Amino acid sequence: MTAIIPSAQITAKYRTADEWAALGIKVQKTSGDLPRTERETGLSFIDSEKDCEVNTCRPAWMRRLERDGAIPESIQIYEEGDGEFRWYVIPKAWVKMPYKPVEASAKQSCNP
After folding, report:
1. What string of DSSP letters covers 29-69?
2. Residue 1 domain-assigned?
3. Could you list the residue range(s) of the whole structural domain that residue 32 is in?
4. pLDDT computed for residue 10 by the predictor
5. In sequence order, what are the residues at sequence separation of 6 or more whose Cβ sits closer than 8 angstroms to the Cβ of residue 13?
6. Which residues fall within 8 angstroms of residue 91, CB to CB, at 6 or more apart?
7. How many domains are there within the chain?
8. Contact assessment for residue 33 and residue 78, using Cβ atoms and an 8 Å cutoff
């Protein structure tokens, strides 16, 4: 369930976990650290629903989602180290299907 935040306080910008906590978002502190080998970003789609779930510990994803207006459902902070995990629910329309990049032809290639 998404937290109810007064519209006057919502702006499309990245916020720290403390700023989100002050706005009523659940922030949970966890002992230990989140090793870099376990940091991931995941998308979960359910066909019958219009939204999808995104969970990420990559700051670039957090900044992008929040810049676009996403509000985290919850945040998990690891007390040791710099690990942080955020959960979002966003419209499926925000996520584009991946595609294979177009390869440059021999004429377009920089290699002779």
Report:
1. EESS---GGG--EEEEE-TT-SEEEEEE--HHHHHHHHHTT
2. no
3. 11-94
4. 56
5. 66, 67
6. 50, 51, 52
7. 1
8. yes
